[in-house]
Design goal:
The chain is of the alpha+beta class and 309 residues long. It has 4 helices and 12 strands. It has one domain: outer membrane lipoprotein receptor (LolB), chain A (Clam), CATH 2.50.20.10.
């Protein structure tokens, strides 16, 4: 969901986390084989925060969460859904928040590079402001539900920031050319909605084999509950092979969630390399702040701190 090839015809390349990256308008780099890079750097996933703030690597099978008294798979998955539903209620009660979001996704069959994005989000009316810190530094996107005829506005970083901002439908091909989800799904709420929808289907169809639960895992200095869900086969779960999610124990919102697809023909990897080569979505939120209420100025394109033209 980004903006870097608004004014170029070369193939776009970029990264997650919209849900956000659940929001995009283009990209400004030349496509490379990021899956090969991901295999080489398997132990760097997840990588949203500096090493001192990261959780333990939960990607490999040998690192799946476990407890001395594990929950049955169905009970663990139902617990995860209940926590996420509580997280939605918490977001509504707080009204707004800011965070740093790291997003990486597979788009068009290619794992795009990770982007780190400063995010401001308001629940009512749903509003989101995004500022790229990496990938295309200076790129901005603004969307307010019910305004601008339902369109987002955005511009690229670098010298393109001097060009007039574009107004686009969030679901248009240009707005979503390098993202899996539109800006209307950006932020913690969008990620929660995605996972609740997936897991309700999982519970209905019993498409999973295990859902391991760990009650205490640290991430970004926060105490989280970890859930690792493994699926039966591509027929039972066509999109996902495995997911690893860390849910904050106080807020009940997902601070980190990685989702993995089924291996493509010819993939010969194991352990961490296998997960790195099959990563399809990664979303991580750090420096989450619910204590500073956001105002209309935070979602005003005329804000002196923004570069919309």
């Amino acid at each position: 969901m980004y903006l870097s090839h608004f004014f170029s015809s070369s193939k776009p390349v970029m990264l997650a986390l919209a849900v956000v990256g659940l929001f995009s308008l283009g990209t400004s780099s030349t496509p490379v084989d990021h899956r090969r890079e991901a295999v080489v750097a398997a132990k760097m996933i997840p990588s949203a925060a500096p090493p001192s703030r990261q959780t333990e690597d939960l990607c490999g099978p040998h690192n799946r969460p476990s407890t001395s008294d594990p929950l049955p798979a169905e009970e663990a998955l139902r617990k995860k859904v209940e926590l996420l539903q509580s997280g939605l209620a918490f977001l509504e009660s707080r009204g707004s928040y800011s965070a740093q979001m790291a997003k990486q996704e597979v788009v068009g069959g290619e794992l795009l590079p990770e982007h780190i994005i400063s995010l401001k989000c308001r629940q009512q009316p749903f509003s989101v402001y995004l500022l790229w810190q990496t990938g295309d530094p200076g790129r901005e996107v603004l969307y307010i539900e019910g305004e601008n005829q339902g369109r987002l506005i955005g511009h690229d970083g670098g010298w393109k920031a001097r060009l007039p901002a574009l107004s686009l439908s969030p679901n248009s091909g240009l707005a979503m050319r390098d993202s899996r989800y539109p800006v209307t799904n950006a932020g913690l709420g969008g990620l929660i909605d995605l996972m609740i929808g997936v897991h309700r289907t999982d519970l209905q169809l019993a498409s999973y084999t295990t859902c391991d639960y760990e009650p205490h895992v640290a991430f970004d200095g926060r105490d989280c509950q970890a859930f690792t869900t493994v699926y039966k086969d591509p027929k039972s779960s066509p999109q996902y092979r495995k997911s690893v999610t860390l849910i904050d124990r106080e807020w009940n919102v997902p601070l980190s969630s990685q989702h993995y697809e089924w291996p493509r023909p010819g993939l010969d990897r194991s352990g961490d390399e296998f997960d790195a080569a099959t990563l399809i979505e990664s979303y991580q939120f750090t420096d989450v702040d619910f204590d500073r209420p956001l105002t209309d100025a935070d979602f005003d394109r005329q804000n002196d701190n923004y570069a919309f033209r």
